[in-house]
Specification:
Helix content is 38%, strand content 22%. The protein has 429 residues and is α/β, with parallel strands linked by helices. The longest helix has 17 residues. The relative contact order is 0.16.
Length: 429
């Protein structure tokens, strides 16, 4: 496929108009001002269009689409214990498959092609990944309140089977990470064993970290003053590639520890605001050089998977919370939504419109009133563009969505089956 005379962003998000971008197989093979020689098949006119890297949702609980709008205006403990946990107790693999298919359709619609997921019934999610064409770093949520180790839990056998059956499946689109749900939902024996497994298998770990003040401060009480970050460092978790979701109450010393271990902090602005979790210290993270990515968290706490909302909020909210209008630049916001997320997933050839990178691409229609005039296209994209402006989404060179048509998902069936699953669970509550 050849994109013809289309606006693109270079690897550091400088805007380049009227470029040619060639895609052969799964990769971008040419980006430049002149038409490349050769037959690339379909030619896509770039008039009034912008080509950008497809975004990466670096933290979500994908199948929780089934709980969209189910628990609202509640404090976190009540939200979890009165709504989310009782609903999840009735989930089965088919429910998770249908919830994941709906989620992937939503992500594709908004130009997202990769997600870091933490949930249950991972085989069902793998099936949805295979069929939809998206990418996923899957981790099976691990919790324990009885003092058991990781090796004693079903999650251990399930994770090892998932690695054996699916790690790097579907042309590398599906990868497996280990998981510790959080310090407050586990124990030190479990955490240490997860760290050992991740080191042995050379895989990453997904965790929740300092999401709430209560979680952060109670950890310090339990562990002789250690913050959750210090606790996870001592137990070996941070010796692997770690994706740390939220980090809302991470202290400056925690940020330095995360940076030293090359971890990624995943900022989830909408979810953290909606659940009144607080404001992540993004300005300090960026100054420290910590890799920051963006996530939506679950639909149950967001209530959508539109990463363009996270991009704009990330670029504006932390100006206000810090009192510094220069705290986050538009380029840093785009980096977090693309390259930052790809780094968190260990996908070094994703996240840029550049030769030899995977053809994970999103085309936006810029021929709309709110994208004019153009003083700086990066500013327009971050502050003005809408997720609904996406007119084409591509993963590994395969078009997944174009102009309202899903190429890999029966959208009417996905919506119907997700509602059917939701109704079946509600009938049991």
């Amino acid at each position: 496929m050849l994109f013809e005379k289309i606006g693109v962003f270079d690897p550091i998000f400088g805007y380049l108009p009227d470029r040619y971008v060639a895609v052969v197989g799964e990769y971008i093979t040419y980006v430049g001002p002149e038409r490349p020689e050769g037959d690339f098949g379909r030619v896509y006119s770039g008039r009034g269009k912008l080509l950008m890297p497809a975004s990466v949702n670096a933290h979500s609980h994908t199948a929780m689409t089934l709980m969209r709008g189910y628990g609202e205006n509640m404090v976190l403990d009540d939200w979890l214990n009165k709504r989310i946990f009782p609903f999840e107790a009735h989930l089965n693999a088919e429910h998770v498959y249908h919830g994941s298919m709906l989620a992937f359709a939503e992500m594709i619609r908004f130009g997202t092609v990769s997600v870091s997921d933490m949930y249950f019934f991972a085989d069902a999610t793998a099936r949805a990944v295979e069929e939809s064409g998206v990418k996923c770093n899957m981790s099976i949520g691990v919790t324990d309140f009885e003092g058991r180790g990781f090796y004693e839990l079903p999650a251990y056998a399930n994770t090892m089977a998932l690695i054996h059956d699916y790690h790097n499946a579907f042309g590398g689109r599906f990868k497996v990470d280990f998981c510790v749900h959080g310090e407050y939902t586990s124990n030190e024996k479990l955490v240490t064993q997860v760290a050992e497994c991740a080191q042995k298998e050379k895989l990453g770990i997904q965790i929740h970290l300092s999401e709430t003040r209560k979680e952060h401060e109670e950890c310090k009480q339990r562990h002789h003053g250690e913050t959750p970050t210090e606790y996870f460092e001592r137990t070996g978790i941070l010796d692997s590639r770690v994706t740390a979701a939220h980090c809302t109450w991470a202290e400056e010393k925690d940020i330095e520890i995360l940076k030293a271990h090359r971890a990624t902090a995943v900022c989830c602005p909408v979810s953290n605001i909606k659940l009144a979790g607080g404001f992540t210290n993004i300005p300090y993270m960026l100054k420290a050089g910590l890799n920051v990515a963006l996530g939506t968290d679950s639909v149950a706490s967001n209530n959508n998977l539109n990463l363009f909302e996270e991009i704009k909020l990330y670029a504006t909210l932390y100006k206000a919370s810090s009192g510094d209008p220069t705290a986050v630049t538009p380029m840093q916001a785009l980096f977090a939504a693309t390259v930052g997320g790809a780094r968190a997933q260990g996908r070094s050839d994703c996240g840029r419109v550049a030769e030899d990178y995977r053809a994970d691409l999103a085309v936006l229609n810029t021929d709309v009133p709110y994208m004019h005039p153009v003083h700086d296209m990066v500013n327009n994209l971050v502050y003005s563009a809408q997720g609904s402006d996406v007119v084409l989404t591509m993963s590994d060179g395969q078009v997944l969505y174009e102009n309202g048509e899903y190429k890999t998902i029966d959208i009417e069936k996905a919506q119907f089956e997700a509602q059917k699953s939701t109704d079946a669970i509600l009938a049991q509550l």
